Amino acid sequence: MIEAWSPQDVYAAEAALDEELASGELMARAVEGLVEVVAARISQLDAETVIALVGPGNNGADALYAVAHLAEAGVACAAALDRGRAHEGALEAARAAGVVLVSGAEAIEDIAEADIVLDGVLGLGGRPGLPGEAADWVRAIPDDAHVIAVDLPSGQAADGSAFDPDGVLADETVTFSVAKPVHLLPPTEQACGTLTVVDIGLTFETEPAVVRLGHDDVADLWPVPGPDDDKYSRGVLGVVAGGEDYSGAAVLAVTAAVEAGAGMVRYVGTPTPEGLVRAAVPEAVHGEGRVQAWVVGPGLDVRASRREAVAQLAVARRALAGEEPVLVDAGGLDLVDDEVIEARRELPTLLTPHAGELARLLTRLGSGPRARSRTEVERSAVEAEPVRHARALAERTGMTVLLKGSTTLVVPADPGSPVRSQADAPAWLATAGAGDVLSGLVGTLLAAGLDPADAGALGALVHGVAADRVGAGGPVRALAVAHGIPHAVAHLLARH
Ligand SMILES: NC(=O)C1=CN([C@@H]2O[C@H](COP(=O)(O)OP(=O)(O)OC[C@H]3O[C@@H](n4cnc5c(N)ncnc54)[C@H](OP(=O)(O)O)[C@@H]3O)[C@@H](O)[C@H]2O)[C@@H](O)CC1
Ligand SMILES: Nc1ncnc2c1ncn2[C@@H]1O[C@H](COP(=O)(O)OP(=O)(O)O)[C@@H](O)[C@H]1O
Fold it and tell me: How far is 20 from 29, CA to CA, in rounded Å?
């Protein structure tokens, strides 16, 4: 599991530890870890020149001390300074070690020829926009240089809220003690590259801001049946999905639920998908009945008027009005209105929109607990600030929101709970029907008793791993992902 703490919590933990340690000890630990990574990269890449981009704060000091150590060890190092502004102790160390200090046009020339660029312009204390000459430095970084960001890529928001295309795009980032939201959240994680966390001894009493499950966490969370279990105790999942237009969604969701190990799946549909489900998934039973959780919505047509569709919609509405946990996806999202929001306020509910569906929902429902602002929300706005928009929907509805995408976010209804961020899927998973598979998989975890945030994060991880293993680096179809779930789960459980 990777946990990330907010910049405020990191500063507080740092201040607490700083009081116990000798002055400069904390930074010395950070620098030692940073030097180790840069030295390893110099030898792996056969790099000859390193240049540090030095900003005015402690982030710049880290970079400057690091090149001082490397210069002492014989590496050809330079440091770009903006009008000579930098941490005094670090500057002295750099001078004494023979680091070449450059600024202006000379800095731009040296950056353009560097093998490794160490970005220490801004760290945790950075505000939007690069200071002084730093924007020119960043533009001068050659494509073939290996860029190592100190703590975080300069220009990117430490809380992960905003991506700056003109900021640093790192090949790797060396951070201290713990990850920060910038490293785990879209849209900023794309600027971080590979992450190394150097332990400098900070401890935290607060909850992390962001959590990412790793493969080794699956065995702790996955509902593995024991000898006393039967099909009912494992959890029965009701699936209200598929209509005459999108009949395949029902097959995909039900198949995924059965493959994920639901004790039983009860399917409620209209004639065409019902026939398909009967043929494709003999394990499923048909019609309404007692369940431990519901999936409502894949392929569901809330505007259909045929008698069978009206009956199916009545079951969907009963599920939303009932007390069992509900996952609401696709067409089912159209059924979420103020009445449903009021009825489900205290009940486990997971909404699973993609960016376009989230934009539509926020446009229709408005944001804030009482829908104070009701404005048109564009898909592009959700993509630019996914966490903010997912949180707005979670606040508006009191429900947990799973926002699908290359990184899947799970924002719990409780604003104090960490955001979950899973980036396990190959881009090949961007294919029709993949979301229907996710709904069946996560629904099974809800029926087994997991809470919506755990079910969403764990389901997203397994979904991604199944796609990765089935596709083996090539294209993957949604049905194959569903069929790949058992092997993915077995593979992940075997790691324990
Ligand atoms: N916390 C930890 O655990 C540890 C932290 N460590 C390191 O310390 C780093 C944090 O250091 P930091 O607090 O000095 O902040 P940092 O990002 O260097 O910049 C602040 C300076 O930049 C300026 N400034 C900011 N934005 C600007 C802008 N857009 N345009 C112009 N100016 C701007 C800002 O100016 P001011 O706000 O005063 O106007 C201030 O002068 C952290 O990332 C890590 O590398 C480790 O050494 C040890 C363990
Ligand atoms: N670029 C991507 N990389 C990895 N996974 C992706 C990417 N784009 C989408 N996905 C995943 O694929 C699935 C698509 O779901 P969705 O948009 O609901 O499709 P559908 O409605 O056709 O089933 C989601 O689980 C999403 O997280």
Answer: 14
CA distances from 435 to 24, 35, 256, 404, 430 (A): 50, 43, 11, 8, 9
Neighbours of 207 (CB within 10 A): 13
**Structural domains of the chain ordered from first start:** 2-212 (3.40.50.10260), 215-493 (3.40.1190.20)
Question: Considering every ligand atom, which ligand is closest to the CA of 174?
Answer: 1
Evaluate: CB of 177 within 6 angstroms of ligand 1: yes
> Is 405's C-beta closer than 6 angstroms to any atom of ligand 2?
yes
Q: How far apart are CA 23 and CA 41, in angstroms?
A: 29
89 labelled as ligand-binding? no
What would the two tokens of residue 441 be?
Answer: 């998989």
Asked if 300 and 309 count as a contact pair (C-beta separation under 8 A), the reply is: no
pTM of structure: 0.95
Q: What is the pLDDT of residues 224-270, one digit of tens each?
A: 999 999 999 999 999 999 999 999 999 999 999 999 999 999 999 99
Give the span between the Cα atoms of 132 and 118, in whole angstroms. 18
Cis peptide before 187 (omega within 30 of 0): yes
Tell me, what's the ipTM? 0.90
DSSP for 201-244, written as a single string: -----SPPSEEE--GGGHHHHS----TT--TTTT-EEEEE---S
Is the torsion defined by CA of 305, 311, 316, 322 positive or negative? positive
